[in-house]
C-alpha cells in the first residue's frame, strides 16, 4: 500500500470519470490553492485529460474546460491561502463562482484553519445512472512536490440506508454555510443538498481485501472529535506509527507517554524543521527524509528545482498484539491546532492484524530493509539536531484581514468602472497593499479604498493582498464579496480569450469534437491558416461546423449549450462571421423542428 517506489498515484487519474460516465457534480476542499492546479483538476474531472497535459497552455481550450465544469464544481479553501499567480490570465475570472473561502472561528486558537483535503464526486452515464467517488488526501490542490498519501473509495447505489455516510452528510452541510447567497451560489447549494440526499443510499467500498471496515471523521464539525477514537483516546497502545510533517510538543508527548513499553518502539516520521517538537519524547524512533530525496532534481542541476519532503499524514495503531490495526489517513497533523481548532477530514480503516503490523508498514515505507539503498528515510537523533525558528508569521495578518468583514461594490462611470472597497481592519505592524487581481493599481490598506477608471475585464471578486515583512513580502489572493458586478463582465473576459475569428473557429472545434486531443490539433491547424484572422476560410469552416452541429444535435445535444454560449458572448464584437451566423440561425430552426 505504501511503497514509494511502486504505489504512486496520479492525482488527475483519480478524478477522471469511470469509462462511460461523465462529471455530474463535485465538492472539493483544500487548505491552499493554486489556480492552475484547480484548472488542471477541472480538466481531469470534465474531459478525462491528464493534469500535466500541454493543453493547459491553450487558453481557448481551457475556456472550453471551465465552461463545461464551472457549474458542476464547488471548491472550498482556507481564507487567504490562494497562491498569487506569477502571471495573471483572464481565465481566472471564470473561477470566481466555483471557489469559496472558509474562515474557521478562532475560539480556541488564533491559528485555527480550514485544513481538509477531500473530493466527493458524482458521475453519471447517458441513461442517468450514477456512480460516486470519495477521495481523501493529505495533498493540497497545488503543484507542491512533497510526498503525500491518498485513498479513493468508489460508491454505488444500494437498497439499504447507508448510515456510515452520516459524517459525510454533516461535512457537506457544514460547507454549505460558506456559499454566498447569489444566484450562482444558490444553484451550487441546491446541488450539494441533492448530493446529501443521495448519500442516504450510496455504499462505498475499498479495493483492498486487507480492509475490513472504515469510518469517516470530519474533525472540527459539530459532534466530531478525534478524541472519540482510539488514536487519541486514553488507553495505552501496543504499536504506533505516526507520519506528520508538522508537530506540537504536547501532542507528541501525549502519544509518547501512552506506549505500553513493548519490544517494538513507536515510530515517528517527520520533517527536520519539526524535530524540536520531538525533544523529550524519547520513546519514539524518529525518521526524516534523506537529504538526497529532499533536494530532488536540484542534485542534477535542474533549473528552479523544487524540494520535496514529507507532507503525508498517516497513523497506524494497534492496541494489543491480537488486535486489528487501525489506519488513519487524511489531513490531520499531530499538532494542537489540528486536534482542537482546525477543520480536518480523515478516513479510519480497520485492517486485519495479519496484514498490517508496525514492522510490515515500516518495511513498505523503507522499500525493503531499513539499511537498504532504496530507503528514502534515515533515523535521526533529535537531541543532536538544532532547527531554526520559523521567523515572522505573515499568514496571520492575512487570516485576520479575511475575517474583518471586508466588502466591495462596483460603480459604473461612463464606459469605465470604479470599485469601492471597505475594510474594517487595522494592522500597523506591517505595510499591506490591496488590488483587484486583474488591475495594476495597488493601494495601501485603509478603511475605504477606491480603484478608479477600470475596464470591464479588470473587475473581479479576487483581490491580491501583499504583506511586507522584515524579510520578504507575502502575496495571497483573497475573495471579497463584491456587489453590482456587471452581468456582461464574463462576456468581456471571453472576448479577451477569443479576440478573432480564428480563435472562434478553434473553440467550436473543441466543443463539437469527440476527442479533446485530436480536436486541439484541428483547432491549432485552424489557428494557423485562413489569413490574418481566419475570415478567408470562413465559408469552408462554417459549412463543416454546420455538419458537425447537426450530428451533435442528434448524438449529444448538451454540447450545443457551449456553442450558444460562445456565439452570444462574442457575436456583438464582430468576431463571428456573417456566413456562420446565417447558418447558425438556420441550424437553430432545424433543431427546433
Protein described:
With 593 residues, the chain is α+β, with helices and mostly antiparallel strands. Helix content is 28%, strand content 22%. The protein has 16 helices and 24 strands. It has helices at 11-15, 35-47, 59-69, 166-176, 183-198, 249-257, 291-295, 336-340, 358-365, 395-402, 489-497, 501-512, 516-527, 538-555, 560-570, 578-592, and strands spanning 22-30, 73-78, 82-83, 99-102, 118-124, 130-137, 150-157, 202-205, 211-217, 239-243, 267-269, 285-289, 314-318, 325-330, 346-351, 377-380, 407-413, 416-422, 432-436, 443-444, 448-454, 462-468, 473-479, 482-483. The strands form four sheets. Strands 9-15-14-13-10-11-12-16 form an eight-stranded mixed sheet. β17 and β18 form a beta hairpin. α4 packs antiparallel against α5 (183-198) and α12 (501-512) runs parallel beside α14. The longest helix is centred in the last third of the chain and has 18 residues, at 538-555. Mean pLDDT is 87; it is low at 299-305.
Lateral arrangement of strands in the main beta sheet: 9-15-14-13-10-11-12-16
Q: What assembly state would you assign to the polypeptide chains in this entry?
A: single chain
Number of helices: 16
Overall body shape: globular
Rounded Rg: 26 Å
- Rounded average pLDDT: 87
**Count of beta strands:** 24
Distance between the termini: 57 Å
Q: Quote the beta fraction.
A: 15-25%
| Largest beta-sheet details | 8 strands, mixed
In the predicted model, the low-confidence regions spanning at least 5 consecutive residues are 299-305
The residue fraction in helices comes out at 25-40%
Structural class from helices and strands?
alpha+beta
Amino acid at each position: 500500500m505504501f511503497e514509494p517506489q511502486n504505489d504512486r498515484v496520479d492525482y488527475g487519474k483519480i478524478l477522471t470519470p469511470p469509462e462511460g460516465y461523465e462529471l455530474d457534480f463535485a465538492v472539493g476542499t483544500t487548505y491552499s490553492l493554486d489556480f492552475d492546479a484547480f484548472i488542471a483538476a477541472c480538466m481531469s474531472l470534465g474531459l478525462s485529460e491528464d493534469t500535466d497535459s500541454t493543453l493547459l497552455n491553450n487558453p481557448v481550450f481551457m475556456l472550453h474546460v471551465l465552461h463545461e465544469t464551472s457549474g458542476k464544481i464547488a471548491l472550498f479553501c482556507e481564507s487567504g491561502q490562494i497562491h498569487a499567480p506569477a502571471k495573471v490570465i483572464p481565465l481566472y475570472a471564470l473561477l470566481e463562482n466555483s471557489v469559496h473561502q472558509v474562515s474557521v472561528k478562532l475560539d480556541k486558537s488564533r491559528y485555527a484553519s480550514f485544513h481538509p483535503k477531500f473530493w466527493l464526486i458524482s458521475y453519471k452515464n447517458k441513461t442517468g445512472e450514477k456512480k460516486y467517488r470519495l477521495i481523501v488526501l493529505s495533498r493540497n490542490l497545488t503543484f507542491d512536490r512533497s510526498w503525500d498519501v491518498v485513498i479513493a473509495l468508489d460508491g454505488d447505489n444500494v437498497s439499504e440506508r447507508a448510515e456510515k455516510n452520516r459524517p459525510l452528510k454533516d461535512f457537506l452541510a457544514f460547507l454549505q454555510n460558506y456559499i454566498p447567497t447569489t444566484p450562482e451560489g444558490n444553484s451550487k447549494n441546491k446541488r450539494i443538498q441533492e448530493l446529501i440526499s443521495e448519500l442516504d443510499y450510496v455504499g462505498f467500498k475499498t479495493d483492498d481485501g486487507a480492509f475490513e471496515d472504515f469510518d469517516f471523521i470530519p474533525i472540527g464539525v459539530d459532534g466530531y472529535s478525534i478524541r472519540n477514537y482510539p488514536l487519541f483516546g486514553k488507553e495505552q497502545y501496543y504499536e504506533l506509527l505516526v507520519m506528520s510533517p508538522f508537530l506540537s510538543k504536547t501532542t507528541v508527548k501525549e502519544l509518547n507517554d501512552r506506549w505500553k513499553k513493548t519490544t517494538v518502539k513507536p515510530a515517528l516520521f517527520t520533517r527536520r524543521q519539526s524535530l524540536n517538537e520531538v525533544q523529550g519524547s524519547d520513546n519514539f524512533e524518529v525518521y526524516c527524509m534523506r537529504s538526497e530525496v529532499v533536494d530532488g532534481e536540484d542534485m542534477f542541476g535542474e533549473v528552479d528545482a523544487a524540494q520535496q519532503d514529507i507532507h503525508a499524514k498517516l497513523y497506524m495503531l494497534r492496541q494489543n498484539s491480537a488486535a486489528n490495526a487501525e489506519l488513519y489517513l487524511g489531513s490531520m497533523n499531530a499538532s494542537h491546532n489540528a486536534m482542537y481548532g482546525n477543520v480536518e477530514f480523515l478516513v479510519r480503516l480497520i485492517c486485519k492484524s495479519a496484514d498490517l503490523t508496525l514492522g510490515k508498514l515500516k518495511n513498505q515505507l523503507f522499500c525493503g530493509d531499513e539499511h537498504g539503498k532504496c530507503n528514502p528515510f534515515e533515523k535521526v537523533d533529535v537531541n543532536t539536531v538544532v532547527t531554526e525558528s520559523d521567523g515572522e508569521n505573515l499568514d496571520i495578518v492575512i487570516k485576520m484581514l479575511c475575517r474583518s468583514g471586508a466588502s466591495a461594490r462596483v460603480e459604473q462611470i461612463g464606459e469605465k468602472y470604479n470599485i469601492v472597497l471597505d475594510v474594517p481592519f487595522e494592522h500597523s505592524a506591517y505595510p499591506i497593499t490591496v488590488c483587484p487581481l486583474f488591475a495594476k493599481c495597488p493601494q495601501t490598506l485603509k478603511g475605504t479604498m477606491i480603484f478608479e477608471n477600470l475596464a470591464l475585464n479588470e473587475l473581479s471578486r479576487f483581490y491580491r493582498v501583499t504583506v511586507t515583512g522584515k524579510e520578504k513580502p507575502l502575496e495571497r489572493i483573497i475573495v471579497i464579496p463584491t456587489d453590482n458586478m456587471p452581468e456582461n463582465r464574463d462576456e468581456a473576459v471571453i472576448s479577451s480569450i477569443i479576440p478573432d475569428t480564428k480563435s472562434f473557429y478553434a473553440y467550436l472545434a473543441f466543443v463539437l469534437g469527440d476527442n479533446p486531443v485530436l480536436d486541439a490539433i484541428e483547432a491549432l491547424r485552424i489557428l494557423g491558416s485562413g489569413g490574418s484572422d481566419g475570415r478567408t476560410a470562413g465559408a469552408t469552416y462554417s459549412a463543416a461546423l454546420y455538419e458537425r452541429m447537426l450530428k451533435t444535435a442528434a448524438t449529444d445535444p448538451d454540447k450545443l449549450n457551449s456553442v450558444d454560449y460562445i456565439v452570444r458572448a462574442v457575436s456583438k464584437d464582430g468576431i463571428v462571421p456573417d456566413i456562420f451566423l446565417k447558418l447558425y440561425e438556420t441550424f437553430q430552426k432545424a433543431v427546433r423542428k
